[in-house]
């Protein structure tokens, strides 16, 4: 920004840039170690089907247990991993780990649980992506129809022909796709209709505006109705209150994910959660 606007205070910006770059480099080096040394972990957040009230699936969310800094948020290290390219090996580790848990969940008596994994822009554009994912699932002995990849609109729309080819190839293996953080580029949902997308996730910023903004209600209604007309299911993310839940239920939103129902949790906690609540976990009406 400062480069484009030389009128602003240079020295200040320089210092900021220096600190940021230093911070970035340290994080990058630490992250490299993290991948080698088992500091990365997946947390799992349940996704609830509003019609059946069952846990349909879980979103796998990356956590970094930093030896000095404690639990580092993905909001902080994913951008670093993305810029440095480390997201590519990290992302494959995530898919591998998710596949292991998927296999384990079937063995534990939770068949049919969908495992959703986030794919970053850079990872999606890795030349070896389809081939690597193919190898991972081939080695994993899983029901591939239970693996779902979450992509953002920008990752899909950057090179639509590439996206179409990759999604179709992976979809032929059974993998399904969700459009993550949906809402801002709303008008282009219809442009995506030729892609094999089975699910749209409404961004939590809209859900959290419910009750405060009539616009958010209109947008959510419109997304649900357009998605349904295209045979696409809808998950609302970031559901924290009963009011939000009720609104979404009235709008025939298919699934919800959010703190109201469950936070992201370590694997063992998820196993207890599913065992204790049973598949017919009750939502208050
Ligand atoms: P996302 O894919 O949109 O994931 C949903 C985020 O919303 C998660 O944040 C989740 O913890 C949070 N969340 C869920 N329910 C609620 C709620 O009720 N209220 C609020 N305030 N937040 C809620 P998290 O785990 O911090 O992850 C942030 C982002 O980092 C993710 O957003 C995703 O874009 C990225 N990310 C996480 N894991 C991975 C990964 O394995 N690979 C890649 N490429 N990106 C990842
Ligand atoms: Mg996601
Ligand atoms: Mg999301
Ligand atoms: Mg998000």
Q: How does this model look, in words?
A:
It comes from Marinobacter lipolyticus SM19. This protein has 285 residues and is α/β, with parallel strands linked by helices. Helix content is 47%, strand content 19%. The protein has eleven helices and nine strands. An eight-stranded mixed β-barrel has the order 1-2-4-5-6-7-8-9, surrounded by five helices. The chain is globular, with a radius of gyration of 20 Å.
Q: What's the helix and strand layout?
A:
Blueprint lengths: L9 H27 L3 E10 L5 E12 L3 E3 L1 H11 L2 H21 L6 E5 L2 H4 L4 H12 L6 E6 H5 L2 H13 L3 E7 L16 E4 L1 H4 L6 H16 L3 E5 L4 H9 L4 E3 L9 H11 L8
Parallel strand pairs: 2-4, 4-5, 5-6, 6-7, 7-8, 8-9
Antiparallel strand pairs: 1-2, 1-9, 2-3
List keywords for this structure.
alpha/beta; eight-stranded mixed β-barrel; 11 helices; 9 strands; globular; disordered C terminus; binds ligand C2E; binds magnesium ion; cyclic-guanylate-specific phosphodiesterase
Range of helix content:
40-55%
Note the overall shape.
globular
* Average predicted confidence as pLDDT: 88
Rg, nearest Å: 20 Å
Compute the number of strand runs: 9
How large is the share of residues in beta strands?
A: 15-25%
Q: Give the cofactors and ligands.
A: ligand C2E, magnesium ion
Domain EAL: 24-278
Organism: Marinobacter lipolyticus SM19
Protein name: cyclic-guanylate-specific phosphodiesterase
Give a summary of the structure in a few sentences.
It contains eleven helices and nine strands.
């Amino acid at each position: 920004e400062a480069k484009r606007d030389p009128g602003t205070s240079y020295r200040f910006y320089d210092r900021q840039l220096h600190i940021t770059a230093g911070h970035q480099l340290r994080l990058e080096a630490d992250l490299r170690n993290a991948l080698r040394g088992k500091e990365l972990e997946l947390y799992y957040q349940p996704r609830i089907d509003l019609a059946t009230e069952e846990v349909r699936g879980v979103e796998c969310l990356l956590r970094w247990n930093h030896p000095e800094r404690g639990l580092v948020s993905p909001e902080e290290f994913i951008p670093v991993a993305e810029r440095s390219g480390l997201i590519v090996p990290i992302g494959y580790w995530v898919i591998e780990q998710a596949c292991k848990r998927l296999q384990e969940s079937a063995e534990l008596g939770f068949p049919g649980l969908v495992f959703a994994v986030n794919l970053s822009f850079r990872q999606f554009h890795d030349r070896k992506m389809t081939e690597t994912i193919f190898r991972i699932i081939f080695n994993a002995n899983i029901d591939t129809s239970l693996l779902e990849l979450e992509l953002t609109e920008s990752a899909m729309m950057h090179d639509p022909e590439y996206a179409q080819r990759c999604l179709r190839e992976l979809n032929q293996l059974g993998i399904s796709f969700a459009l993550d953080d949906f809402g801002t580029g709303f008008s282009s949902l219809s442009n995506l209709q030729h892609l094999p997308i089975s699910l749209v996730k409404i961004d939590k910023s809209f859900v959290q505006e419910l009750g405060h903004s009539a616009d958010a209600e209109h947008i959510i209604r419109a997304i649900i109705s357009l998605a349904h007309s295209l045979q696409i299911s809808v998950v609302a993310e970031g559901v924290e209150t009963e009011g939000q839940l009720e609104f979404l239920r009235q709008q025939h939103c298919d699934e919800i994910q959010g703190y109201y129902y469950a936070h992201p949790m370590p694997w063992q906690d998820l196993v207890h959660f599913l065992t204790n609540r049973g598949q017919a976990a009750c939502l208050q009406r």
